[in-house]
Amino acid sequence: MTLFLTEDELAGVVDLGDLIDSVRALHADLTLGQATQPVPAIIDTAPSTVLLPMVSTSHRLGLTAVKILTDAQGHGSVQQSTVLLLDAATGDRLAVLPGRTCTRMRTAATSAAATDALARGDSRVLGLVGAGPLAVEHVAAVRRVRPIERVVVWSRTRERLSSFRQALQRRDIADGTTPLDVVEAAGIREVVEAADVLCTLTPAREPVVRGEWFRPGQHVNAVGAPPRPDHREIDSAGLARATVVVDSTDVSLAKSGEAVLSIRDGATTADDFRCELGDVLTGLAPGRLGSEQITLFNSVGLALQDLAFGALVLRPVAGTVRVKGG
User: Fold this and answer.
1) Which residues contact 7 (CB under 8 A, 6 or more apart)?
2) What PANTHER family does the annotation carry (predicted)?
3) Contact at 8 Å (CB) between 292 and 216?
4) Positive or negative CA dihedral for 137, 213, 235, 205?
5) Which structural domains are found in the chain, ordered by start?
6) Which of 75, 78, 154, 253 could be 185's S-S partner, Cβ–Cβ 3.0 to 4.6 Å?
7) What pLDDT, in 10s, does the model give residues 34-57?
């Protein structure tokens, strides 16, 4: 039996807290050899449009995820994706999921897992560069792992900020959480300098955040730039100032502009991108070493994280599909 779900049908199926745990477990599996995550190819399908077929397998869960992502920058920067879940042993098709909800939730859950592993325990101010749906999801996710009291947010438009406030209010009601103090910043530097935890959530090609703005003890989640080696949100100085942790070394060195361009500029070397989130989660790498250290999670996005979401979608119907361990 194959499970087919629409975006509307996915709403409420996956609990965000469970997803954070699922992401943690699969990143640990990747480090321990219980999952595989090859570097995806980039295929030019039209001028300014690329296709990324992303694949990952969890040997523990017996699942393979195949995500097809198209990034059509010449057509309004539209990203679309579909996730296919397979039985890793038999190849049987288990589920076909639209990618929007999956991508938004698993991206925020991964940022939360990284924040929990790397940010100071007393972090109370969340800074957001960007105010779209991914920003709302990040507020909900980071609140699960740190005692956030204030959100400082910047967007290019007043309309987007108004939509962000309204969406955050609806999310607070749905989640039963106490509304946070939300401050609208006049500029990006104001967000950076105010934040204990900073999330950059823009599809930038040129850097919008300067490393000279970072302050001691800060944790940064670099999230928004698409997986293209010529796109980045944070300049080379920022990568040089921070202790960097990546979702995947191989993927970062191939697809992340933060990595590729800072190495090109001579600010970092490939060795600065060797520490993976799974290394920190399993205790093979230390993560944060002190209260003044600046940490940065370079989030490119992996099919492994889509698999973490898909495994939870399949769990309620585990009696009708063959899924091991989940």
Assistant:
1) 98, 100, 101
2) KETIMINE REDUCTASE MU-CRYSTALLIN (PTHR13812:SF19)
3) yes
4) positive
5) 3-102+304-317 (3.30.1780.10), 119-302 (3.40.50.720)
6) 154
7) 999 999 988 888 777 888 899 999
